[in-house]
User: Which sequence fits this backbone?
C-alpha cells in the first residue's frame, strides 16, 4: 500500500464491464492524486466514466486493474473506517423522516450509534449547511436545494475526511445551483474536508475546484489536469473576470481534444 501522503491516490485504474454480448471499457489507465484538504473537480462529457471513477474510490466498483488508496488504506478499509461520505445527484431522503432524522440515519445503521469525539452533531451540521430552524421539516416541505443541503449534512456526519460528490447539483435550477456552489466552497473551507466533485459543467468545475481533472470518453481516460489559478476567496462575480474566461477556454480545449 502506498504511503498515506495523499488523500486519494489512483494509479493506472482501468474498469471493464463484461456482459453476454460485449466487454465495455469504462476507464482506461487513469491516474491522479488528491492532497488532504484539497478540492478536485472531475470534469467530462456523459459516458466518460466520471461516476465510475468516484465509485472505484468509494469501494462501490472494483477496478479491473490498477491501484487505489484512500488515506493510505484500500477503499474497502476506508469505507469500513467511515473515512468518506458520499453525496449523490438525488438527495435520497426518506420521506417519512424529518430533516434532522435523515441526518441522524447513519447512526442507526452500520453498527455505529455514537459520534466520534468532537464531531459535529446532526443539529450543528444542519446549521452548517444553512438549515437551522428546519430540523423538523419533512422532505416534501423543503425545496430541491434544501433537500440537497440535508444530504450534504448527512454525508458529513461523523466527520469524514473525504467527501465524494456525484453531480449533486445537476438537477437543480441555475439560481439554486449557483447559491449552493458558494455554500459548498464555504463548507469546504470551514470543515477542511477533502472533496472529490463530479460535474459536467466547466464553470462549476472551475469555480469549486483547486484543480480540474478532465476526462475523455470511449474509453474514459485522462485528457488533461488543469490547476485552477484563482483566488481562494471567490464569489460568483469571479466568473466575469478575464482570468476565469481564459481558463474556461483552456478547459474547453481539453474537452475538445478528448472527444
Assistant:
Amino acid at each position: 500500500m502506498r504511503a498515506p501522503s495523499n488523500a486519494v491516490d489512483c494509479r493506472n485504474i482501468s474498469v471493464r464491464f463484461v456482459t453476454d454480448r460485449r466487454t465495455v471499457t469504462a476507464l482506461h489507465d487513469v491516474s491522479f492524486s488528491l492532497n488532504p484538504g484539497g478540492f478536485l473537480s472531475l470534469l467530462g462529457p456523459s459516458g466518460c466514466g466520471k461516476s465510475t471513477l468516484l465509485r472505484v474510490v468509494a469501494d462501490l466498483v472494483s477496478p479491473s486493474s490498477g491501484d487505489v488508496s484512500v488515506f493510505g488504506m484500500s477503499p474497502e478499509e476506508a469505507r469500513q473506517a467511515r473515512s468518506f461520505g458520499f453525496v449523490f445527484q438525488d438527495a435520497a431522503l426518506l420521506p417519512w423522516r424529518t430533516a434532522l432524522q435523515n441526518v441522524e440515519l447513519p447512526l442507526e445503521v452500520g453498527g455505529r450509534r455514537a459520534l466520534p469525539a468532537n464531531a459535529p452533531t446532526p443539529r450543528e451540521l444542519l446549521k452548517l449547511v444553512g438549515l437551522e430552524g428546519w430540523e423538523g421539516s419533512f422532505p416534501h416541505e423543503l425545496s430541491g436545494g434544501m433537500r440537497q443541503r440535508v444530504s450534504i449534512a448527512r454525508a458529513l456526519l461523523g466527520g469524514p475526511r473525504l467527501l465524494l460528490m456525484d453531480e449533486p447539483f445537476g438537477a437543480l435550477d441555475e439560481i439554486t445551483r449557483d447559491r449552493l456552489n458558494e455554500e459548498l466552497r464555504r463548507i469546504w473551507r470551514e470543515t477542511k474536508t477533502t472533496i472529490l466533485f463530479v460535474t459536467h459543467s466547466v464553470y462549476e468545475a472551475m469555480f469549486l475546484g483547486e484543480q480540474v481533472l478532465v476526462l475523455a470518453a470511449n474509453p474514459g481516460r485522462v485528457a488533461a489536469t488543469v490547476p485552477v489559478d484563482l483566488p481562494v476567496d471567490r464569489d460568483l462575480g469571479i466568473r466575469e473576470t478575464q482570468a476565469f474566461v481564459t481558463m474556461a477556454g483552456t478547459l474547453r480545449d481539453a474537452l475538445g481534444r478528448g472527444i
About this structure: Residues 174-191 form the longest helix (18 residues). Residues 8-83+162-258 form a domain with the Rossmann fold fold (CATH 3.40.50.300). Strands lie at 8-18, 23-34, 39-43, 65-70, 84-87, 162-166, 194-199, 211-216, 221-227.
